[in-house]
Amino acid sequence: xxxxxxxxxxxxxxxxxxxxxxxxxxxxxxxxxxxxxxxxxxxxxxxxxxxxxxxxxxxxxxxxxxxxxxxxxxxxxxxxxxxxxxxxxxxxxxxxxxxxxxxxxxxxxxxxxxxxxxxxxxxxxxxxxxxxxxxxxxxxxxxxxxxxxxxxxxxxxxxxxxxxxxxxxxxxxxxxxxxxxxxxxxxxxxxxxxxxxxxxxxxxxxxxxxxxxxxxxxxxxxxxxxxxxxxxxxxxxxxxxxxxxxxxxxxxxxxxxxxxxxxxxxxxxxxxxxxxxxxxxxxxxxxxxxxxxxxxxxxxxxxxxxxxxxxxxxxxxxxxxxxxxxxxxxxxxxxxxxxxxxxxxxxxxxxxxxxxxxxxxxxxxxxxxxxxxxxxxxxxxxxxxxxxxxxxxxxxxxxxxxxxxxxxxxxxxxxxxxxxxxxxx
Length: 425
Known about the structure:
By secondary structure, the chain is an all-alpha fold. The protein has a domain at 273-425. Helices cover 73% and strands 0% of the residues. The chain contains 19 helices and no strands. It is globular and about 65 Å long.
């Protein structure tokens, strides 16, 4: 009975927080706030419906739910042991027996699900709604930060971070990507505020540190690429403001900073060690290929754990990461929807290509080039290590929002659409 009361109290607090946040929005943002929140929550529920019905109750979201309930039951039964359990990096089978997820990153997320189960009475849909709400808040924070930094980017930011179907879907509900992408969004928003000289409040710094901790523990391979680029962009922007004469060389200086930071990043996780990195990519590829239907995979040419082989296969990896499955590679409803969306992405990329010639004169060129570098690097290594197109469609949301934003920003197709339907910027 107590846990049910806690669940209802939590939902009331969530509703009250939503109403308060809604009232804080400007008149022009209130409709978009409501639409984006509703879409996000429905996406989180849809993830559960698909896994419960289409995949017949299998999949990691279901296993995380079961683990969360087991952890909550154990904590209620022996609360004195809870602190030690949550602090531990490995499961305690004597305290919580029967956990599905015992690998470090999965176990970390199971503990998060355990906390959610404590405040939701173990109800899957409430847990999914809470995570979707948290993910929405981070996306909204990035949207507001982007609009403050580049006012004309309102609709590109809204579509890329709040409304793009696959991005919204695969970053909602009871899955690791909900928190993983939320972490990237929070740090991205803070970066925009920092280089835009906006006031950064203490709670924003606290949220960014929390995002760094959560993101690293859940998606270290996203963060391993994202953080060096973020630090390089911030450092060069700061240097250009302090020494304006260096601004004209910002891209060259940024490349130097990034090179040093990427070398440093090879020492912060065992899978990034130079002697292991390519072997990890290669072994992951082999494992996915062994478990996947060949028609649903990317077939690389003689992939080996060598830089020569990686460079040779990189163009195919970029195409796979950005655009596959193609519209004609349809074997079920989900792949068909992904194919149609990827066709739209391909059209957007083609429409955006002529604008590349203007990047060198853009006041945001450092940020644009940093974002492009992140998208290409993550696309290459994710597609090489994850050749299964279904899994890749989920993992690539780590870079897709940023790619979609770049494609939409000053895209003539979006400009025509906003003029035609009087959406404004």
